[in-house]
Amino acid sequence: MSNNSAKTLFDNKTYVFMTECLSTNDYLLKLLKKKSYQEGTMVNSSYQKGGRGQRNNNWLSEKGKNLTFSFLLEPNIELSNQFLLHIITSISIFKTLLEINIKNISIKWPNDIYVNDKKIAGILIENLVYRKFIYKSVIGVGLNINQANFGILNATSTINETMKKHNLDQILQIFKSIFNKEYLKLNSNKIHEEFDFYKKNLIGYQIEKKYEYNSAVIKGKIIDVLSDGILVIQTKNSIIKFNFGDIRLV
């Protein structure tokens, strides 16, 4: 990543819009197998039939009502620092929601965005690695905008939170602008400030919550997140470290 490319990350780059696809991440990864594309290439779809979240959870979205897109990065960072991509993407969505006057936003580790304790956005990051360096990264974002009904799912949207419809393209432009700025911080000292912002806004940070772990329920509070994304929780009797998928907030 160069400063020049980051400042204009999405400008004059390949932009693919589809009314429908299985998964924007899958589609972009298939494009990359056929030929080389510039950093900032984006695939956007008004409907994903097979959208995926972390750990292959489905991302359900009504046609034409939400943002579901993926974009290409060339971060050139060590694999051990891959969680930094989760942090800057989570914060970019967080700040995008702030820009449209959404309140009570929080982050659920590792990278779901919640508003008033309901999920409003999710992130899926898939990296291409060579010699322990991430040379390409496909970042997928699902952000609930104008969908009002989620059935039994614990989810919300910008229309539910603000009681008004939003223009999808305008919100996407806000995200692009904010992500440009966050991406510039990736290899700078300012990334420490982003780490602090991320932790401060985590659900359960310094607050006791219940978690499901090994088919049992434990109580504890998040006291840290390490640079590789490991979650550190302090229980009554010990300090325990958890990797992705090890633990679930209940």
Task: Explain this structure.
The structure is a single chain. This protein is an alpha+beta fold and 250 residues long. The protein has 6 helices and 13 strands. It has helices at 3-7, 24-34, 83-99, 158-162, 168-184, 191-200; strands at residues 15-18, 42-45, 67-73, 77-78, 105-108, 112-115, 118-130, 133-143, 209-213, 216-225, 231-234, 239-242, 247-249. The strands form 2 sheets. Strands 1, 2, 3, 4, 5, 6, 7 and 8 form an 8-stranded mixed beta sheet that branches. Strand 6 (112-115) and strand 7 form a beta hairpin. Helix 3 crosses helix 5 (168-184) and helix 3 (83-99) packs across helix 6 (191-200). The radius of gyration is 18 Å and the shape is globular.
Explain the layout of strands and helices:
Blueprint: H1 3-7, E1 15-18, H2 24-34, E2 42-45, E3 67-73, E4 77-78, H3 83-99, E5 105-108, E6 112-115, E7 118-130, E8 133-143, H4 158-162, H5 168-184, H6 191-200, E9 209-213, E10 216-225, E11 231-234, E12 239-242, E13 247-249
Parallel strand pairs: 1-2
Antiparallel strand pairs: 2-3, 3-8, 4-8, 5-6, 6-7, 7-8, 9-10, 9-13, 10-11, 11-12
Helix pairs in contact: 3-5, 3-6
